[in-house]
Design brief:
three-stranded antiparallel beta sheet
């Protein structure tokens, strides 16, 4: 049985001074200025893409906790994307995911394989650039 494809919709708006994107019920201020003299403090398109990857990992940790089941107290991820200028594109993405869990190492590795196999954003970016990363864990305090 196959299910219907999901559709995601966002809207964005910009003027010369600011830009916003609306996703679900949230509105985010964006940095879309060309060569700003000072940082705005708001994410730009690259940070949003890296954020989508981080969110994909975290959402799939939560999904796996229900399906495997896999018990964890918290998860924290850092994502670094590498960009080249000519032609402009991202060439690599690195991530470090840390879990606070009592699960043994082989279960943490199983979770990592599931993140790599079933992450929609993960697989989309892995198709166009090098994606590498590690999952580490520590026991709850």
């Amino acid at each position: 049985m196959t299910s219907a494809a999901l559709t995601y919709r966002v809207s964005a708006r910009a003027d010369v001074a600011s830009a916003t994107v609306r996703a679900a019920a949230d509105e985010l201020t964006l940095d879309t200025r060309w060569q700003p003299s000072e940082p705005s403090g708001h994410p730009g398109p690259a940070e949003l893409l890296a954020s989508a990857f981080a969110a994909c990992l975290l959402k799939n940790v939560a999904r796996s906790s229900a399906l495997l089941p896999f018990a964890y107290e918290s998860a924290e991820v850092t994502v670094v994307m590498h960009r080249q200028d000519a032609p402009p594109r991202f060439t690599a993405l690195e991530y470090a995911l840390h879990l606070v869990t009592s699960e043994p190492a082989h279960r943490v590795e199983l979770l990592h394989r599931n993140l790599q196999k079933f992450g929609t954003v993960y697989n989309t970016l892995a198709a166009v650039c090098d994606v590498s990363g590690a999952v580490t864990s520590s026991p709850p305090a």
